[in-house]
């Protein structure tokens, strides 16, 4: 599944991190051993410096593995794609360690062969481990046998959302049990289990060692076998509502399934993290200053290229300002590098399209690598945006979305962001249907937001930029 903040996911992520940290530590000591042949060391002080280098490399490598998405258990990649990500992340750790850390702290320089040997051993070790576990359920990643109560419209969403093998890593969907009241217009192509739920359900669940039951029936009144469910709960079998199941396994809130009682009894869409709220601006301002210091030359070059391409001829600004809806529905002006011609919206407001012919040559490049977003740092400094949050939308669209899409206005409970969970999980959207899909991820973020979740999203955004996956 996606790397989220439910207890179910933590139980799977922690062993993976611990094992790969151990592999990287072993790689560090292999590098230490091999490099000693070229540059022998005898004194205790040099051994200490090497050990410090091992720890630094392991920390940087782990952050790099996280940043390229290798701790997302539902990563849809072949072994070749996983190897490529490992190569990039370890290579990044090599560069940061050798070219940055060792130059900032010269006292750590000791053996020029240590970092290359360690990086090579790390690539081999982590790649071999990932290859071994890719098609096996080892090290606590056991597949849970799951039974779905219901075989109608709601239950069919599980099948549609979780068709791929990668979507079901960690679970084995035993089948769907129809109940009276299920809508028959939705076709489920998987195993339909016909049985008398009042008489035979308990026997079936026990004989098949079912570990979790998903309640996904269309009509619950007088349809659910409450006594059996009560007995299952006592036996330690998990009983999960379809909304919570979809949220946990896909990292989104299924807005089309929400009913009022679920909102009342869930943790809602407001954050209760008061520490986060109190340091929110300081965190974003510090991050904004850091990014600005690193990227101002790139911003200067971008502005110059936009001016040369058409700004000089048309007199249009290299920046593009546009009204967006922010926290609590307040309107502000977002600042971006202009990626389209100055007359791009002469026919009125419209969604940006994939391969939009209104985009300039420079615009296509800067949008691909999200360079056009960099001027939004000034929105961050003004407190109108954060680094992480739902992307702010235009007032013209928001007015219509609030009328047409349930719970859309809840995304304005937090500051909008330069990047967000929806951008990572559903990176392109140009229709109302796409907006609904992205809203599901936005609501999930709002429910689960935390400082660590924000850091994860920032690191994963690096992957999008690195591989040029922006739109």
TrEMBL record:
Sequence intervals crossing the membrane: 16-35, 47-70, 82-102, 114-133, 281-308
Domain Bacterial sugar transferase: start-end pairs: 282-466
Membrane topology: Multi-pass membrane protein
Subcellular locations according to the entry: Membrane
Keywords on record: Membrane, Transferase, Transmembrane, Transmembrane helix
Keyword DNA repair part of the UniProt annotation: no
Domain of life: Bacteria
Database matches in Pfam families: Bac_transf (PF02397)
InterPro entries: Bact_transf, EPS_sugar_tfrase, Sugar_tfrase_EpsB_2
Record's keyword annotation contains Repeat: no
Signal peptide feature range: none
Family: Belongs to the bacterial sugar transferase family.
Name of the molecule in the record: TIGR03013 family PEP-CTERM/XrtA system glycosyltransferase
Source organism of this protein record: Catenovulum adriaticum
